[in-house]
Design brief:
Blueprint (H helix, E strand, L loop, with lengths): L3 E5 L4 H17 L2 E8 L8 H28 L4 E7 L2 H11 L4 E5 L5 H7 L2 H8 L4 E4 L1
Parallel strand pairs: 1-2, 1-4, 2-3, 4-5
Helix pairs in contact: 3-5
Length: about 140
């Protein structure tokens, strides 16, 4: 039933709580967890060197977040894959749902950025509204 479970991670406590719930679901249904971290490249950097350094730093942070999540999943004996994506968070999550034929998305009710959520709408709301598969929002 839930063979492929997508868990967006942003490093927040809520996303880790969502991951822990996803691990239990994956264990029950012999599922695989796919972790995704989406980063956005801002245009505030001036020179090409600054852009390069900025992108390197946010990619390293994203990889670090995914590695921590991957450790939690592997410790429970659940198969896991990771994806580091650049772009708009909701859009990339929805693309991954379709491309990977995801059966369930498990995500935190809040992320790290409260201001971004107010301005753009929350990721959990956007994914829930447009996802073609079930979404479990963990508080």
């Amino acid at each position: 039933m839930f063979e492929k479970i997508l868990v967006p991670l942003d490093g927040s406590e809520h996303s880790i709580r969502a991951l822990k719930n996803a691990i239990q679901i994956a264990k029950k249904f012999d599922g695989t967890i796919i972790l995704i971290h989406v980063y956005t490249v801002s245009s505030f950097a001036i020179t090409p060197a600054q852009v390069y350094n900025y992108v390197q730093a946010i990619q390293e942070l994203g990889n670090s977040i995914l590695e921590e999540g991957q450790k939690l999943v592997k410790a429970e004996g659940v198969p896991v894959e990771t994806k580091l994506q650049e772009g708009q968070t909701i859009e990339k999550i929805l693309e991954t749902i379709t491309k990977e034929k995801i059966n369930l998305v498990v995500l935190g009710s809040r992320g790290l950025s409260k201001l971004k959520g107010i301005i753009m709408g929350s990721v959990s709301e956007g994914v829930t509204k447009h996802s073609p598969c079930p979404v479990l929002v963990v508080k």
